[in-house]
Amino acid sequence: MKLAATILSILIINASSAFGWTVDLQQSATVSSSNIKLADVCSNDIPEKYADIILAGTGAPGAKTCISRQQILRKLVFANASEKVRFKGNDYCTVTRAGNQISKNKLHQVLIEELTKLLPDKSFGAPESSIELIGQLPEVTMSSGWNLSLDTSRILSPGRNIVRVRLNSGQQNTRFTVTVTCHIWGETASINSLTNKSQLIEPHMVSWSWSDLAITDKATAIGRESVIGMVAAKKLTKGLIIREPDLNAVPLVHQGEPVEMKIERSGIAVSATGVARRDGALNQIVPVRSDIDGRIVSGRVIGPGLVAWRR
Q1: What is the pTM of this model?
Q2: Which end of the chain is more exposed for a tag (fewer CB within 10 A), N or C?
Q3: Over 44-71, what HEC string results?
Q4: pLDDT attached to residue 202
Q5: In this structure, is residue 253 part of a structural domain?
Q6: What is the CATH number for 262?
């Protein structure tokens, strides 16, 4: 009996060698792995050594890939596995990669949470800042759990911002760009009564209100420190919303008045006197006629009647 079984086994092996092996291509298949392998598209058992031949590489979850007999044959030829193979079944197999589409509501929620972390600190007493998403989010399918990150840590600016977004799920990464409007609030001032040119702006001369900086003129003066203590650059009428060009910094040196010029080199401080040729506010550069030799030199205003001499 043992001899008969051995002979039968030899005959089966020889028959298999004579007739080769078969690829029975099914009409459709679903795969959860990153690659599509030969075994995934066959409805029959195939030799184990050929089962893991890769027919198509990584694809997005939910995507469909059409695998044809010709594609399979090319892969088999490349792998030296095409000898004595025969095909049956369908001409094509449509393979769907497993995965679930992310809910747009959930994606929107997580995205806004991450973007909110990049909003600047709000001013005391200001309304809450908010983020408005412009346009539609893309359709995204992921094979498993996912997380969202932003390609920037830069604080967002009032108004329109463009941000790169990354979705991660294992080895799968998806990127897309979103446009958002940041509604950030700042204090703006309006003139209470007619103000003359060069008049100092004092607290009682203006009224304050909160403005959405996303829709406010970019040149508008924002914040009390940018208005109070400045001087009017021109006549300002009642009710006018103050803009930065409407104001000048208070001059600390004045045209035609004496100034002290200081210079420091190698730890040695030297001072001289001169006459300012132009008004200048803090950190502004003004020309000064030196009392030493009458030359015109440049100086940076560092205090009342005081400039740092630039040589």
Answers
A1: 0.61
A2: N
A3: CCCCHHHHCCEEECCCCCCCEEEEEHHH
A4: 93
A5: no
A6: 2.30.30.760
